[in-house]
Amino acid sequence: MSTPFVGQLRARRDPIQLAAPGAPAISVRVEMPETWDTVRFVASPDEPVISLKLRALDALFPDGELHEEFVMKIRGWEVLDEQATLAAVGAVNGSIFLLTSRYRRPVR
Predict the structure, then answer these.
(1) CATH classification of 5-101, choosing from 3.90.1150.10, 3.10.20.90, 3.40.50.300, 3.90.1140.10?
(2) First CA to last CA across the chain, in angstroms?
(3) Mean pLDDT of the region 5-22
(4) Could you tell me the pTM of the whole model?
C-alpha cells in the first residue's frame, strides 16, 4: 500500500499502526488545531473511531482534558457515533480527521 500524498504533509512521526500486519488497512491523518500538530495512522477500515480518537489524544494532547471534551470530525461533520467504524463514517485511504475541542475557546 502506498501512502497518499496528504499522509506525507507535516509528518514528523512514524504512523501509529492500528491494523494487524497483512490485514487490509487505510492511511488516515488526525489533525488537532489546539496543538498545531498531526498524527498519522495505518488502521483497519473496521477500527472504531473512538480508538483513533483516544490514541490521537495520547499522542497530541497527553496532559489534556477528558476525551469527552473533544470531538472528531470528518469532511466538516462531527462523528456522532464514535463506536462506528472508519468505513462506516466514510473514511478512505488518505482521509483527514479533525480532533478539536467541543466548546469554543476565547482567543486572547
Answers:
(1) 3.10.20.90
(2) 44
(3) 74
(4) 0.82
